[in-house]
Amino acid sequence: MSANAPAPDTARDQATSVITAALADPRKRPVVKSFFDEATFTVSHVVHDPATKRAALIDSVLDFDPPSGRTSHASADALIAYIEAKDLTVEWLLETHAHADHLSAAPYLQDKLGGRLAIGHEIVTVQEVFGKIFNEGTEFRRDGSQFDQLFNDGDRFRIGELDATVLHVPGHTPACLAYVIGDAVFPGDTLFMPDYGTARCDFPGGDARILYRSIQRLLTLPDETRVFLCHDYKAPPGRTEFAWETTIGAERTGNIHVREGVSEDEYVVMRTQRDATLAVPRLILPSVQVNMNGGRPPEPESNGVRYLKLPLDVL
After folding, report:
1. Three-state DSSP state, 191
2. 258: burial class by Cβ within 10 Å (0-12, 13-18, 19+)?
3. Which pLDDT tens digit goes with each residue over 157-216?
4. Which CATH architecture is the domain 10-291 placed in?
5. Distance of CA 59 to the CA centre of its chain
């Protein structure tokens, strides 16, 4: 290999092969149904194999009212109703990362529907960092064992007869994954719609330079690849509707932050300056506290009530 040749990227090439095969054969393409939670601007996806009706749920939402501390399940129940109406069998509950903007409903859905709960292996890094922030004791396991599966870059799995693979795309958080399922990629918070840009990198463990490199891996996937995003904020002038589906080609040529021609250094300057203007997410403290524990709230105390911690002057 010459000194100027790009380093081999087996996982990315594997993802490309999965996508290319699905583009050539409609039977290898998943059906995707998306559910938008406007309270948190989060999109959850139900992905299924039309041949076997086996399914995965990606980035579910537990409804949470901060003033009252009450949780409810309307968003999750909408997923359940769809799955039951389509007679689907859930094999996977997939988290793209430990979200800072909503609580996961994965344990509730797993109890109702079954399936294996999965996240990236680097959740252990998030657990270590935020375990200290929340002063969790030794009873809080920092080994990812709250999840059924910890994925690494290049790991493969199946949903029914659909081929799927995993890309580790850190930068927003250390544990971020993109799931490639047939001709579709689910990049979590790594990318937004082309007119909105990319994820922030100022959380503990975030890094704008690393995020740029992660995104470049995604942008080399086939242009026709469908991209299903985790959030939309409808902020760009001129757009009146929420949107969460695009393509790799549209991201590569039109993303306002990382389109073709934007250098790594230019991106880092832009992202760092922009992040300095952003407020801390409204639900980051309850969300990460629950999500790093597999979506489970703290155990009840002696009075039977569960409590979330609110560390002062830390973030």
Report:
1. strand
2. buried
3. 999 999 999 999 999 999 999 999 999 999 999 999 999 999 999 998 999 999 999 999
4. 4-Layer Sandwich (3.60)
5. 6
